[in-house]
Design brief:
Rossmann fold, 7 strands, globular
């Protein structure tokens, strides 16, 4: 079973790990700059691997006439998303579906095609063959001119890049942990990081390879708009 289907892992990520992701605020801000530069209006959004809905919520806060469909295979994550959107059901529809399966699209409501498809640190859990199939699904689900944004954990090209990313993330987690418990040791944070259950779900792919897949499918303006060690923002548009 995937680690993300367990309550303890979902809560740990939402309540602690996410805030420690290096440059997370800058990544999300750039995502919104890309949206503003390419989409004059947004009516509907699809969030794949939505977690607790933070990314979709940031879009809906800026485009208040829009609605969003949020998809995740983790019931604990969807429960946290339900808490976030409680009382605002018209703006957000939650869908329990696993996009590892070809039939995941059948669970979507009739809100397609979508102006915007977003994903945050989720698609890297798929193997490369399934990533490619999902990218093709996304292309079909977008309206002409629609935008795909993927905040992602990617494969560093070098061992040095991998080591630097681990060190940076551990430092960030430690800085966050020590504010809550001044007695915490960095060695304990590092051991927890390296021993975390969810790392076995990772199927990281290089940026260049993923951009090539998007171009071959037919996306335009494909680029890695942000890259910092093992973190990236990949994007592409469906031609008008």
């Amino acid at each position: 079973m995937s680690a993300w289907k367990k309550q303890i892992n979902a809560d740990s990520y939402i309540d602690g790990v996410r805030a420690a992701i290096p440059l997370i605020d800058e990544q999300v801000a750039l995502m919104h700059r890309l949206i503003n530069a390419t989409l004059p209006a947004i009516e509907n959004v699809l969030d794949l691997g939505c977690g607790d809905g933070a990314l979709a919520a940031s879009v809906l806060a800026r485009h208040q006439d829009a609605s969003a469909v949020l998809v995740d295979f983790s019931e604990p994550m969807l429960a946290r998303a339900q808490e976030r959107f409680d009382g605002n059901d018209a703006a957000a529809v939650l869908v329990h579906a696993d996009f590892c399966e070809r039939t995941w699209i059948d669970r979507l409501p009739d809100a397609r095609p979508y102006d915007l498809v977003i994903s945050g640190y989720a698609i890297h859990h798929l193997d490369d063959e399934r990533k490619l199939l999902l990218f093709r699904d996304i292309y079909r689900l977008l309206r002409p001119g629609g935008l795909f944004l993927n905040l992602e954990h990617v494969a560093p090209v070098s061992c040095l890049g991998h080591e630097l990313f681990d060190e940076l993330f551990i430092n960030s987690l430690f800085d966050q942990a020590i504010r809550q418990d001044p007695a915490v040791r960095r060695t304990a944070v590092a051991a927890q990081y390296h021993g975390r259950e969810d790392q076995h779900d990772n199927r990281l792919a290089p940026v260049d390879e993923q951009c090539r897949w998007l171009r071959e499918i037919g996306f335009i303006d494909v680029d890695c708009y942000f890259k910092f060690l093992a973190l990236a923002l990949l994007a592409g548009r469906k031609p008008d």
